[in-house]
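Lab notebook, design round three. We kept the backbone fixed and only want residue identities now. Task for the bench partner: fill in a sequence for the structure below.
Input structure tokens:
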């Protein structure tokens, strides 16, 4: 407790001071940490007490019912005054010259802290965790609900402390603390899922198109042929059947009207010869159909030449 100005009694340190920002004492370096500057009389009292080191203090604004914690950097301030970082004054809702209560405390070492940046710009840094680790070296403790300031590349980034373990206020001096990040305050999650939903439908449509085009290609579209020359049980496709029907009567008339059995064999073999056998020999018959019966009678005579022609489709008798 305290009385008569700055006299102290008891075993704990507790005092009220008027607070001012660091700019009043020309100490800009304390803006990048959580340490304050206290008067020399506070050092004399703290030295006579059995307190734990490093020295940690609780800052309380009774008017706004706000609480935070800090360390101490130097004891060079004027009596009855303390200098603190401006971001700390903002957390406590303090103005220049307002009254703040200080009390020495002992905080447990932190094991876990969850942070939430105010803007997405902090995540755009190449290695935000390394920058944060370097910045937190200037801090001695963290309090749930505070907003700390990280200065990097001539820009200030504000980060909220939304959770600390094992208590709401922890010491981060010489301790291994797990750090987790929450999405930034300006992060809009619902907008992003709409983008992949439209793009996911496009590949399915592209994949369906080839499947529809595949049945259009049909390999081995030729008609079936028998090696023994017998006609097929199934009718050939209409494309070839029309040509074979036109050629059948012309060939049978040119062969001096053979029997019905021989005419059926010759018409079947003639259709086979269109693609495989005797194709060059049979084509002139089609071009000379309009020349008359005399031209058709000369063609069988040419076939009776001594040249060997296998599978001509003619019928011979052993009796002569």
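Proposed sequence:
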């Amino acid at each position: 407790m305290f009385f008569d100005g700055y006299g102290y009694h008891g075993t704990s340190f507790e005092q009220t001071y008027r607070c001012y920002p660091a700019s009043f004492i020309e100490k800009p370096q304390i803006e990048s940490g959580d340490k304050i500057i206290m008067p020399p009389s506070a050092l004399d009292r703290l030295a006579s007490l059995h307190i734990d080191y490093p020295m940690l203090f609780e800052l309380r604004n009774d008017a706004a019912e706000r609480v935070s914690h800090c360390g101490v950097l130097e004891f060079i301030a004027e009596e009855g005054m303390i200098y603190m970082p401006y971001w700390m004054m903002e957390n406590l809702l303090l103005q220049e010259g307002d009254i703040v209560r200080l009390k020495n405390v002992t905080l447990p070492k932190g094991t876990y802290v969850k942070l939430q940046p105010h803007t997405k710009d902090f995540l755009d840094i190449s290695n935000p965790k390394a920058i944060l680790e370097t910045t937190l070296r200037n801090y001695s403790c963290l309090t749930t609900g505070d907003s700390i300031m990280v200065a990097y590349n001539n820009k200030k980034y504000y980060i909220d402390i939304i959770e600390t373990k094992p208590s709401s206020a922890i010491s981060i001096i010489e301790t291994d603390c797990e750090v987790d990040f929450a999405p930034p305050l300006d992060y809009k999650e619902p907008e992003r899922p709409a983008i992949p939903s439209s793009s996911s439908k496009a590949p399915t449509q592209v994949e369906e198109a080839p499947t529809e085009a595949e049945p259009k290609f049909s390999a081995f579209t030729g008609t079936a042929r028998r090696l023994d020359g017998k006609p097929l049980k199934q009718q050939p496709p209409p494309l070839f059947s029309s040509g074979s029907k036109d050629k059948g009567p012309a060939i049978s008339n040119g062969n001096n009207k053979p029997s019905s059995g021989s005419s059926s064999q010759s018409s079947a073999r003639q259709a086979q010869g269109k693609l495989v056998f005797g194709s060059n020999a049979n084509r002139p018959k089609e071009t000379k159909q309009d020349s008359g019966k005399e031209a058709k009678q000369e063609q069988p005579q040419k076939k009776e030449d001594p040249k060997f022609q296998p599978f001509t489709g003619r019928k011979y008798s052993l009796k002569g």
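Keep this in mind before ordering anything: Residues 252 and 263 are 6 Å apart (CA to CA).
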